[in-house]
């Protein structure tokens, strides 16, 4: 899965269904504001002005390109992961490895923005402290990716993506205890509805179907995916805490560095697991017996790794262009993209229970987003001092 980037300094819950994972940073808001706005006008204007006077249509084109990267990369990565298992792949550690193995791709945007370093007013933490944070979070990320790989092995892509939607509920809970997020009626409604959605998927008889997965393995897949969603949400909150209390710096390059260094650690940990488990001995036979041939086996793994990092580039790009919450909102659209795509590609069954679970998930998501919309309005009023003062702004919104 992806490494996620928390909304640094915000009081809202973080990314929903992200597989491949970047910490989400946002500008610090006043304590009275309970969540980061979806489109913070001051934040957006500042970021637009940093793009050397781009016209609105050019700015929107960049936003559209990054949205495409996020949605296409995320959907492709999940579908390719399911394809790997369907055609004879069986190594959970290899599936874990490819989720972060293409991290060198992120050096491209890092080098492109390295010349525009922003001055820091805070004393940077020591290298030992930073290394300890990256190692700890990287190991957690590797374990989380392993749980996701196990879940995808035993579940259809549509069922898997629906369970991953519970990340929003877990994010709200962990953010309440770790990051002092305020619980409102709408957020509580979102948590309850998403929990009901997951419960429907749990009791749905999706085993012994076309995939031939037993009920026992289906239960393992469900538990692993649910646990992975909870662990990933905890990871996001811990990342936010690290940015707030230790790193104390919120720039595009710092976000990329967090993603790159934690991915390096996670990749190394996955390699250790691959060799320690003995799965590396079966890879040659796995490649020879792959349903579409040896070349297809290699290309499936390569493009799965690339797809995760394309998604990561899209996530970071939207954070930089718009806001962290907007990036999370777009990421959540995969909740619809992946199940629908899996029906078309793998002919997954979308029975009535799954449809109801998906609708409940959208309901829970809409409740959460509406709460952030209300907080957005409150933040704009607090910053402008009047309801209509920003009507003449030169923003592209």
UniProtKB/TrEMBL annotation:
GO MF term set: purine nucleobase transmembrane transporter activity; purine nucleoside transmembrane transporter activity
Keyword Magnesium: no
Membrane topology term: Multi-pass membrane protein
UniProt name for this protein: Probable purine permease
GO CC field: membrane
Organism superkingdom: Eukaryota
Pfam families noted in UniProt: PUNUT
Organism: Vitis rotundifolia
Keyword Transport: yes
Keywords of the record: Membrane, Transmembrane, Transmembrane helix, Transport
Residues that span the membrane, as ranges: 59-81, 93-113, 128-148, 160-178, 184-204, 216-238, 258-276, 297-320, 326-346, 353-370
InterPro entries according to UniProt: PUP_plant (IPR030182)
Main location: membrane
Subcellular location, record wording: Membrane
Family: Belongs to the purine permeases (TC 2.A.7.14) family.
């Amino acid at each position: 899965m992806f490494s996620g980037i928390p909304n640094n300094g915000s009081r809202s819950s973080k990314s929903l269904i992200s597989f491949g994972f970047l910490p989400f940073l946002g500008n610090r808001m006043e304590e009275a504001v309970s969540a980061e706005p979806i489109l913070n006008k001051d934040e957006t204007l500042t970021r637009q002005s940093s793009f050397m006077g781009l016209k609105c249509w050019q700015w929107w084109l960049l936003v559209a390109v990054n949205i495409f990267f996020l949605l296409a990369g995320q959907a492709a990565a999940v579908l390719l992961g399911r394809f790997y298992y369907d055609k004879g792949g069986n190594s959970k550690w290899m599936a874990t490895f490819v989720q972060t193995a293409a991290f060198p791709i992120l050096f491209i945007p890092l080098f492109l923005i390295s010349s525009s370093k922003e001055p820091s007013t805070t004393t940077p933490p020591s290298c030992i402290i930073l290394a300890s944070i990256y190692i700890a979070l990287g190991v957690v990320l590797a374990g989380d990716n392993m749980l996701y790989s196990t879940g995808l092995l035993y579940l259809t892509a549509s069922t898997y993506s629906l369970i991953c939607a519970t990340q929003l509920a877990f994010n709200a809970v962990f953010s309440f205890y770790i990051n002092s997020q305020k619980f409102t009626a709408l957020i509580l409604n979102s948590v309850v509805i998403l929990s009901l959605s997951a419960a429907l998927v749990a009791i749905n008889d999706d085993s012994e179907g076309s995939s031939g997965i037993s009920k026992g393995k289906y239960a393992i897949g469900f538990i692993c995916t649910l646990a992975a969603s909870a662990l990933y949400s905890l990871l996001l909150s811990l990342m936010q805490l690290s940015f707030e209390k230790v790193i104390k710096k919120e720039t595009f390059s710092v976000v990329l560095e967090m993603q790159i260094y934690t991915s390096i650690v996670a990749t190394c940990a996955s390699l250790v697991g691959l060799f320690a488990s003995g799965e590396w001995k079966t890879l040659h036979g796995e490649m020879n017996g792959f349903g579409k041939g040896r070349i297809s086996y290699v290309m499936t793994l390569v493009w799965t790794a690339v797809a995760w990092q394309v998604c990561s580039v899209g996530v970071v790009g939207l954070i930089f262009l718009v806001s962290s919450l907007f990036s999370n909102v777009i990421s959540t659209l995969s909740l619809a993209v992946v199940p629908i795509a899996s029906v078309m590609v793998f002919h997954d069954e979308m029975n009535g229970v799954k449809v109801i679970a998906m609708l409940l998930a959208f309901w829970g998501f809409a409740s959460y987003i509406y709460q952030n919309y209300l907080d957005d309005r409150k933040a704009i009023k607090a910053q402008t001092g009047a309801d209509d003062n920003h009507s003449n702004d030169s923003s592209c919104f």
